Amino acid sequence: xxxxxxxxxxxxxxxxxxxxxxxxxxxxxxxxxxxxxxxxxxxxxxxxxxxxxxxxxxxxxxxxxxxxxxxxxxxxxxxxxxxxxxxxxxxxxxxxxxxxxxxxxxxxxxxxxxxxxxxxxxxxxxxxxxxxxxxxxxxxxxxxxxxxxxxxxxxxxxxxxxxxxxxxxxxxxxxxxxxxxxxxxxxxxxxxxxxxxxxxxxxxxxxxxxxxxxxxxxxxxxxxxxxxxxxxxxxxxxxxxxxxxxxxxxx
Length: 251
Ligand code: PXP
Known about the structure:
By secondary structure, this protein is of the alpha/beta class. It is built from eleven helices and eight strands. It has a single domain (29-249), classed as Aldolase class I (TIM Barrel, Alpha-Beta Barrel). The protein has helices at 16-23, 32-41, 60-69, 82-91, 118-130, 143-152, 162-166, 170-189, 205-209, 221-230, 232-249; strands at 10-14, 46-50, 73-78, 95-98, 135-139, 156-160, 193-197, 216-219. α2 (32-41) packs across α11 and α10 (221-230) crosses α11. Pyridoxine-5'-phosphate (PXP) binds next to β8 and α10.
C-alpha cells in the first residue's frame, strides 16, 4: 500500500498525570484545561482522561471543564460503574473507553474480560448509544475478546499494548508485537475501529504506528515525562512527528 493511501493515525494524549501533579499540592496548578490546549497546540488530535472511582488524579470538575472547553476529541476512560456511567452520560464525551479498574493498581492492568461479562457490556454499550455516545472497549489482543466486543455493538476497541511495552527480551517483544498486529487486522475485518495504548513511548510506538489497521493511539506517561525536559507542547509535537513518520515510512 502506498503511503498516500494509508488511513490517518490519530494521537490522543492522556493527561491524567497533569492532574496527579496538581493533586500533589491540592491546588489549581498545573491547570488541566490549559494542559489540554497545549497538547492540541502541539498537534494532538484530542485528549483522554480517566475518571477513576477513587479520583486519584482526574476529578469530576476536570471532566466537566474539559468537555466545556475542548472542541476536538475528548475520550473519557472509565470503569462501567453506575456512578461513573451517570457522570459520563451527563458529560457527553466524544468517546467513552471502558476499562477494568482495581482499587490498588498503579495504573490499568490488563484488558476488560468482555467475553465473560457479555450481557452487562451489551447493556452498558446500549445505554451509551441511547445517548449518542460511541464506545471503545479496552481489551487484550485476543480474537475471543474482539468477537465479544463486536457483539456488544461497541464501535471501537483499544488494544492493550502493556505486554508489548513491558517485554524484557526481543523475543517476547516480537511475540507481543505479532499478537497486536494480528488482533488489529482481525478487529478491522470484523468492523471495529482500532485504538492502541498503554506503556507506549517514543521508541516502541514506531512499529505499531506503522500498522495500517491501527487508527488511533492513546499515550500519556512517556509524553508527560518528556515534557519535563522540553515542555509539553514540544513533547507532544515530537510524538506526533514520530508517529506520522513511522506511519509513512513503511511504504
Ligand atoms: N489507554 C488506557 C486504557 C490506559 O489506562 C492508559 C493509562 O492510563 C493509557 C492508554 C495510557 O498509558 P500510558 O500513560 O502508559 O501512555
